[in-house]
Amino acid sequence: MRIDAYNQIAQVYGVQKVSKTQKAQSTSRLRDQVSISQAGRDYQVAKNAVSEASDIREDKVAQLKSQIGAGTYSVEVGSFASKLLEKYQ
Fold first, then answer.
1. Whether the Cβ atoms of residue 73 and residue 67 lie closer than 8 Å to each other
2. Which of 4, 26, 33, 78 has its CA 20 to 30 A from that of 11?
3. What is the pTM of this model?
4. CB distance 73 to 64 below 8 Å
């Protein structure tokens, strides 16, 4: 029968499990540490500044509103058409 071969294999794996457990216990005393570089800190500061900045340029909006209100705002047809074509091509 092949039972003897199975028992031998089980014994081999049983011995390896013990050694792995002992190895894991000895390394559990170590502590993980994380350090962030200065470039990473600078990136985080810049990212926070950009996220807090407004998406709307209030000065530009006010200027356009005043031009529209005064009737002096004009759209260049050629420029508008070329930008429209660039977007959809």
1. yes
2. 26
3. 0.36
4. yes
